[in-house]
Amino acid sequence: MSSETIESDELDIESVLGSSVERREDPSLITGEAEYTDDIQRPEMTHMAVLRSQHGHAEINDINTSTAEAMDGVVGVYTADDLDVPGEVPTGWLLPDLKTPSHTILAKDRVRYQGDGIAVVVAEENAIAHDAVAAIDVDYNRLDAVTDPKEAVEDDAPVLHEPTEDPTDTEDDEEIGTVPGNQAFDWEIGDADATDEAFASAAHTAEVDLENQRLIPNPMEPRAAMAEYKPGTEELELHMTSQNPHLHRQLMSGVLDVPEHKIHVVAPDVGGGFGNKIAHYPDEALVSWCAKETERPVKWTATRSESYLTGTHGRDHDTHAELAMDEDGVITGMRVETYASMGAYLSTFAPAIPTYLYGTLLSGQYDIPAIHCHVIGAFTNNAPTDAYRGAGRPEALYVVERMITLGAREMEMDPAEFRRKNFIPEDDFPHQTPVAVSYDSGDYEPALDKALDMVGYDDLRERQEELREEGRYLGIGFSNYIEACGLAPSELAGQLGAQAGLWESGLVRVHPTGKVTAFCGTSGHGQGHETTYAQIVSDELGIPYDDIEIVEGDTDEIPQGMGTYGSRSAAVGGSALATSSQKVVEKAKKIAAHLMEAGEGDIEFENGEFSVAGAPERSMGIQEIAGQAYLAHDMPEGIEPGLEETSFYDPDNFVFPFGTHVAVVEVDPETGEIEFENYVAVDDVGPQINPKIVEGQVHGGVAQGIGQAMYEGAVYDDNGQLTTGSMQDYTVPKAEHIPRMETDSTVTPSPHNPLGVKGVGEAGTIAAPQAVVNAVTDALQPFGVDHIDMPLSNESVWQAVNENAAAD
Ligand code: MCN
What we know:
Layout: H1 26-30, E1 46-52, E2 58-64, H2 66-70, E3 74-79, E4 110-111, E5 117-123, H3 126-134, E6 137-142, H4 149-152, E7 164-165, E8 178-179, E9 183-190, H5 192-200, E10 204-215, E11 224-230, E12 235-240, H6 245-256, E13 263-266, H7 282-294, E14 298-301, H8 304-310, E15 314-325, E16 331-343, E17 371-379, H9 393-411, H10 415-422, E18 431-432, E19 438-439, H11 444-455, H12 457-469, E20 473-482, H13 490-495, E21 504-510, E22 516-520, H14 529-541, E23 548-551, H15 569-595, E24 603-606, E25 609-612, E26 615-621, H16 622-631, E27 644-649, E28 658-668, E29 673-684, H17 691-710, E30 741-745, H18 763-779, H19 794-803
Parallel strand pairs: 1-14, 12-13, 16-17, 22-23, 29-30
Antiparallel strand pairs: 1-5, 2-4, 2-6, 3-5, 7-8, 9-17, 10-15, 11-12, 11-14, 15-16, 18-19, 20-28, 21-22, 21-27, 24-25, 25-26, 28-29
The structure holds pterin cytosine dinucleotide.
The site of pterin cytosine dinucleotide has 37 residues, from helix 14, helix 15 and helix 17.
InterPro entries: Ald_Oxase/Xan_DH_a/b (IPR000674), Ald_Oxase/Xan_DH_a/b_sf (IPR036856), Ald_Oxase/xanthine_DH-like (IPR016208), AldOxase/xan_DH_MoCoBD1 (IPR008274), AldOxase/xan_DH_MoCoBD2 (IPR046867), AldOxase/xan_DH_Mopterin-bd_sf (IPR037165)
Protein name: Carbon-monoxide dehydrogenase (Acceptor)
Pfam family, one: Ald_Xan_dh_C
């Protein structure tokens, strides 16, 4: 179901929420008016380039910067010895036995991944800075590297970081244990004994070894930063490609030891993030330090190669998973063991991703009585991992949905019916899973039924049989995904190790003219917040959409904020704006009652009009009230002038969107080629603020999920060299790779926020990979192919067919 967009002047205040109004941010983005960080110019501005390690693992014997220093146009060359940065790259999420190795802003004696920063050059021109970097001579002593998380924790693996004392041991323990050098953490969730019992009494089991390959995010705009230091006021202004400017301000304050109120972070137009622009990287700290040191504005923009090497990567899991079932195909247990690569150092939110964002979703849409998940996080000689669209949840749902498909195969049941049989029943919400989270709401069968109907399931299965007779292999793959998003609530996040709250702030200011500026602490970078937030505020205040402006991404304008990731903006930021708008209406109601000489209880509010109950002719519009609120000649007693309100919204729980995606493919066993016949996505994200934006988010997410399933994958060689470090070697999915998509929805509101909304930004990416892999293995069932690791290249599909000689 595709909705047509409408123009803003066609909007009707009664239906502004739920209308597919055109994205208001697009005209400037598509006509070149948008201003990205790299577009910013300042008088006397200099440019920074970073010398990065060419080796995956090496000691640094010597760095000779003399040639670079002598080059015309070079302002300064700095190594770790020159930097007097008090802090290190911070870790924002702690686990009980987490090892947090030192991560200095520039590497000192040793580099641990290709791309590790060694020195910086500040120069009058960008090209000079890069030339000077090339002129720096580093004497390395190469060391053996390890790039696989499972191998990294073996005894004979090259060690990246020294063993440390086990932080969970206390003085009372008889012996203080040590955490081995490459082990970042050893974490588990669920009930191991109950799971063992489920397997001991299982009538049927299924198991699989699978890799969730390392991915490299490719936002259109690479990371960039421009810093300006004002010695007079000791203020630092930092423009940067940020998904969370307030968090970057807070972390930067600690790293540089500059008070937070002296740092002004601005995220101008940001060309996509997909999680890649959440973390605190060394680079923005370097730019800031260089600006302070040189007392000149300094700009740095990553080259595409630098983005590949040093932007945080995603996924990189090696997993063994098992499913236990009774004789009727009822699931009784699931056991998961995962090795997760952290890369060379801990990135800001990395510890949370293969643990709390992963293990807690292993129940999927299913009523599984016993689950146990064990994750070992390992340091490896690769770029650090962190959030990448979905972050932990795609990895979890990939495991769940592959296991469910293999469970159905073991039971010789139809995969849709096996799913239906094991769904959490609709009357069992809120549903407490055995892996800590409580799903607030859900109703899984309608989405499945709709998807089955859309693909014409019964006919498809018949056609599959007929085609097999002709030697053609059609496959149907299901993905019944769930996700936990709307990242908040602070109390829960705190219990799980977050070093920050996860509320969101919203400020709604109604000007004396009745026009509105609303400020939110989220920071959109492609999601259409200026449109959807204006829809929310317009609906709450009854003020026309075109009279409402949205401001995000500037720490001086917006009181505080937590940013945009974890599909939290609609559920948490949107709710903060809705709550502030409601407070504005409450205050305006008091003023209206006073001005109309009526009791407050007699005032009704609808579509921006306050009227006296039973006397509709006595009414005042909210925009008129705003004028009176600032004129302040006749205010009710105890009410201050002005009309603006702020909220810090902090919900009780995550939100849990879900859906059914179905991929239909034909696989050629002779060549390994996969051709899409159909892709159907039925998503339940609660009420949709803007169905067209929701559809766009689903399309984009599915495209990235198909990218993972079929094309993408970072490849490091044994020395830690990234062999897929460019767009030529790393296939980013293009329009021609993406099939026709049919989307539809069901609506199960979340009880946890005033809008009932659930996030959509990551849904497609979480859902799509397993839909594709399940479709391809379904097509190849006659060849006995149970599993193929992603990406499903023609070669790997062909090999799987030929390794299994079971063709009939
Ligand atoms: N929305 C809606 N109705 C709902 C839910 C959401 O209309 N029921 C709208 C929202 O108002 C918002 C958009 O859909 O305009 C996405 O909302 P939400 O799901 O809250 O996600 P966020 O805005 O917090 O965005 C983060 C999410 C993530 S985590 C990644 S990664 C991602 C994604 O968004 N990165 C993106 N989508 C992206 N889209 C673009 N263009 N670029 C990225 O980098």
